[in-house]
Structures are given as C-alpha cells and as structure tokens.
Amino acid sequence: MIVYRITRKKYSADLSGSGARLYGGRWNSIGKNVVYTSESISLAALEVLANMTVDSIPDDLQLITIKFADTIRITTIKLNQLPNNWSNAEPSYQLKKVGDLWLKKNKTLILKVPSAIIPQEHNYLINPSHLFFSKIKITDISDFSFDKRITSKK
Fold first, then answer.
1. How many domains does one find in the chain?
2. What are phi and psi of 2, to 5 degrees?
3. Where are the beta strands (DSSP E) in the chain?
4. How does pLDDT run along the chain (154 residues), one tens digit per residue?
5. Range of 133's domain?
6. How many Cα atoms occupy the beta-carbon half-sphere of 143 within 13 Å?
7. Residue 64 domain-assigned?
C-alpha cells in the first residue's frame, strides 16, 4: 500500500512522529508519537490546508510517498464507531483516547481512520514504536506546492 504526507523539507525524512508527540493531533494526545498519512495526495494536501491559513503556507513543502506491504495488519475505525462530534474542528478527547489506546496496545502498525475533511476517504496513522515499523519505507520525496489559485488572495 502507498500513503502520502506533505510536510516541510526539514521534516521530510522524519517518520518518528515527533511532531504529533509535541503538538498532539486528532487521534493522539501530546506525548504520543504517531505519523499521520493519507490515502491520496489530494487528501494529504487538504489535511495541510485545513491546518493552515493561506498566509502561513510554507514555500518549502515536500510530498513524501511511503510504502508498506499489503500484508501488514491494519486496525480500522469506521464512521459508525465514532461519536457525533468526531469531525469537529477541535478534536474530541474521545478520539485521542482511541488513538492513544491503539498505540498503547501496540498490536498493529497502522490505524485506518476516516478523514474529518472527507469522511469517505481515509488517513493512515503509523505507530513508530511498533515491531514492524522497519517495514515502512519512504519511496519518494519531491517538492510540493499548491496551485496559485489556492494560495493567492482574491
């Protein structure tokens, strides 16, 4: 399987999950390392845009392509398992508990979750502490920029 993330150049080869550890995320509390990825480049781009303003988009973004074997076991969270407010802009404590518990159990390398932006699409969280983490491979890193129609003020 191939997944994607978009990040600043200085973090492009970093799959430690330290950014999520420092700031927390929808699916993890501060102090918990996890790597957020998306099933498509366009979803990865939307995830970046959802967390920035047009003025704050850096000019050194890179697209990271990550591959892992289709045989890797994945824990899947489905929409019907989530509370009604799961996709609110301010992430629910309940979601952080779900991700933190998944990390603590350490049974699977990957957690598949619906995207709060497009619930029919998915993000894939990677646990850097899992035994099979070495099976995750960065296959490509390339420069990424948003179309000027998105980043220019009208």
1. 1
2. -115, 135
3. 2-8, 35-38, 61-67, 74-76, 110-114, 122-126, 137-143
4. 999 999 999 999 999 999 999 999 999 999 999 999 999 999 999 999 998 887 889 999 999 999 999 999 999 999 999 998 899 888 789 999 999 999 999 999 999 999 999 999 999 999 999 999 999 999 999 999 998 888 776 5
5. 2-148
6. 5
7. yes
